[in-house]
Description:
Beta Polymerase, domain 2; 7 strands; 16% helix
Amino acid sequence: MEIARWLHDEVDLRxxxxxxxxxxxxxxxxxxxxxxxxxxxxxxxxxxLKTRTPRDRAEVPTVESVWKGANWLEREIYxxxxxxxxxxxxxxxxxxxxxxxxxxxxxxFVEPADYHGISTRRESLLx
Length: 127
């Protein structure tokens, strides 16, 4: 992402820290938003950068070459929202099992009744 490199390298900006990277699902609008919280230690200022990608082909370029900490944050967003980060060196699930179907933080996600014979329904925990 060209803007990410510029925000990082520009001497008067120098956003050298990725404080957080997250995703937000907007199904009624048809997109997922990826949100980058950046901070500049040399200049002591912050900025929030947002980008949108269509839900049906959720894909955003990785920023891990700019901020190394993006590696696991992007894996988490991929795992839970299904956003593919093109160019990512190790894009695989981080929290969910490798054979899990779907992305649990998408607002249209339907939780399966069970996973490998174990109930995923919370009602079963109340008995």
